[in-house]
Design goal:
The strands form two sheets. A six-stranded antiparallel beta sheet has the order 1-2-9-4-7-10, covered by helices on one side. Strands 3-8-5-6 form a four-stranded antiparallel beta sheet, with no helix packed on it. It folds into two domains: about 160 residues, Regulatory protein AraC (Jelly Rolls), CATH 2.60.120.280; about 110 residues, Arc Repressor Mutant, subunit A (Orthogonal Bundle), CATH 1.10.10.60. The protein is built from ten helices and ten strands. About 45% of the residues lie in helices and about 20% in strands. By secondary structure, the protein is an alpha+beta fold.
Length: about 280
């Protein structure tokens, strides 16, 4: 592995899973980053050396974690973190920054949370498999976006299967059926004003029970998932069409453009017009 590499992923149309940037680095002694807040999930895997992570949990309480080879740490969107290499034995790591509509579900299945951000593998061999997949992504920036997203899927599956804090799923088939029914309903009706009650009715479930089932499965409430879906659709329209921001706002379930702009900025870290200027596909 070279001392340092860094790549930015092309902003292709992947709603369920998106890769933003990735890289690898042999850090200098006491090399640190932060305090900083990310807009997306950021995972580091430690190959050698040592370091520490200072991360705030969901209540804003900061904790310090010591990391060794074979371990990793996950930074969550909106979480304040600082991480630093050891003074005499600095770490070498690879990282992936990613997001998507179902990522909260995947990391929850791996047993990772703001209160428990440290990845510890069941065995060193399984942990090495996660590290190998990350090293592959970091070393193949010339491959197609679809190829790299495929390996991101392998990374997430490896993370879940190898994690010592992995959550076992129960009653999966029936629950997955209800969740898929709700997601399909949202995908077909996100442009309209729909409520959690509407989603629950489609699944023929009590509203409270449906909301709990959805959050347990997807890692976020159904209304938050709908917001993410609408904003993802809006981003794709801004990138690939010449429609006005106002038209896109209405098409994606936001009749009030001010509300749309506020939600978009909160999700993507910049106003819609600025995001479009940076990401719109130029027609030849």
């Amino acid at each position: 592995m070279d001392d340092f590499s860094f790549s930015v992923f092309p902003n292709e149309n992947f709603l369920d899973l998106r890769l933003f940037q990735y890289g690898k680095e042999q850090c200098a002694p006491l090399h640190s980053y932060g305090p900083f807040v990310r807009n997306h999930y950021l995972f580091h895997y430690v190959y050698s050396g040592q370091g520490q992570l200072d991360a705030a949990d969901q209540n804003g309480v900061s904790r310090v974690y010591q990391l060794s080879p074979g371990q990793g740490f996950l930074i969550f969107p909106g979480q304040v973190t600082t991480y630093c290499a050891h003074e005499s034995n600095p770490w070498k790591y690879a990282w992936l920054e990613f997001d998507g509509l179902r990522v909260a579900e995947y990391v929850d299945r791996a047993g990772l949370s703001p209160a428990q951000p440290i990845y510890r593998p069941l065995t060193p061999e399984r942990g090495q498999g996660v590290g190998d997949t990350m090293a592959y992504i970091a070393s193949h920036s010339n491959e197609s976006p679809l190829h790299l997203v495929g390996h991101l899927c392998l990374f997430l599956d490896g993370l879940i299967q190898s994690s010592a804090t992995r959550r076992e799923l129960r009653g999966g088939q029936l629950r997955d059926f209800y969740i898929q029914e709700a997601i399909t309903f949202m995908e077909q009706n996100y442009s309209r004003e729909i409520t959690v009650e509407d989603m629950a009715n489609v699944c023929k479930l009590n509203r409270s029970y449906f909301s709990k089932l959805f959050k347990d499965s997807m890692g976020c409430p159904p209304q938050e998932f709908l917001i993410r879906l609408r904003l993802s659709k809006a981003a794709d329209l801004m990138k690939g069409t010449g429609k006005s921001i106002g038209d896109i706002s209405s098409m994606c379930g936001y009749p009030n453009q001010l509300h749309f702009s506020r939600a978009f900025r909160q999700r993507y870290g910049m106003p819609p017009r600025e995001w479009r200027a940076r990401n719109q596909i130029q027609k030849k």
